[in-house]
Design a protein that fits this description.
This protein has 311 residues and is an all-alpha fold. Helix content is 72%, strand content 3%. The protein has a single domain, classed as ABC transporter involved in vitamin B12 uptake, BtuC. It has twelve helices and two strands. Strands 1-2 form a two-stranded antiparallel sheet. The two termini are 18 Å apart. It comes from Halomarina ordinaria.
Amino acid sequence: MVSSLLAVTALEPLTLVSPLQTQYYATQLFNGLMLGMTLVLVSLGLTLIFGLLGVINFAHGDILLVGTYLAWTIQAQTGSFLLAIGAAILGTFVLGVVLERTLLRYTYGRYNALLQLLLTFGIAEFLRGGVMLVWGQSGKNFPNPSWAQGSIDLVLFSYPLYRTLVIVAGAVLIAALYLFLNRTDMGLLIRAGTQDREMVDALGIDVSRIYLVVFGIGAALAGTAGALIGPVRAAYPTLGIELLIPAFVVVVVGGLGSFRGTIIAGLLIGELQVLTGMVYAQASEVIVFVFMAVILLVRPRGLFGEEGVIE
C-alpha cells in the first residue's frame, strides 16, 4: 500500500545515522503504521455503522474487547491462532447481529440520537462487566503465534514478524472491505442505503436486512482488530476504551462516513501518537485531540467530509 511505500521512503535519511539509531527510528515508524492499521479497522466499523444506521456506537470498543478475549481463549485452548482469529470474527459478528436485532433496531430515527447514545453506553458497560465476570479483572498474557516469532529483515532494519503480519493483514482486510462495498450486490445496496434510505425502501428492498449485515460487519471489524492487537497489547478490560477514543477521533478527522478519510486519518493518527511518544510520552494521548482541533478549524467537516458516506 501507499502507506508502506511512504514508510520505506522515510527510512532513506536513516542511512546517515548509526545502525542502532536506524533500528530505533525505523521501528517506531512501523509501530505507528501498525497502530494506524489497527485504528483504521476499528474506525471503519464505526464509519459503516454511522454511515448507514446513523448510530454513534459507544459499545464498539467493548465489542473489540470481546473479540480479544475470545481469541485469547481459543488460542489458549487449541494453540491455533488462526482458529482464534476466526472465532473472534464469527463471535463478534454474531454479537453485533444480536445487539442490532434485539436492541438497536428500535432506536432508529432522527429523534432517537440521545437514546442511542445511552443505549450503546449501557451495552458497553454490560459487555465490559461481562468480560471481567468471565475472565477476571487482571490482564491475560497473549503470546505471539509460534509461526510468527522472531523478526524479519526490512532493508535497513529488522522488525518483529508478528507486527509486520498485523500491518499486512490490516491492508488486506481494508482492500477486501473496499471490494465488498464496490463490487458486490450487498455492498452496492449498503452504499445506496447510506445515501437514500427511503428510496431503497421504496424499491421493495429489505432495509432491515441491510442494517443487520452492516452492524454485524462493523462489529466483526472491531473483533478482528481486537484479536490482532491482542499479542501486541495483551488482553485487559480497558483495552477497548483505550482504542475507541482515538478511533472516534479518526472518524471525525477523516470526515463522518468517508471511507478514504478514515483510512488516511487512521494512518496519520497512528504515526502521530507513536512519534509524539518518542519525544514526550505523556503527550501521546493528548496530541490526537490537538490534531483533531487543528483539522476542524481548517476543515470543519473533516478531511473528506464533503463526500457522501462510505465513499
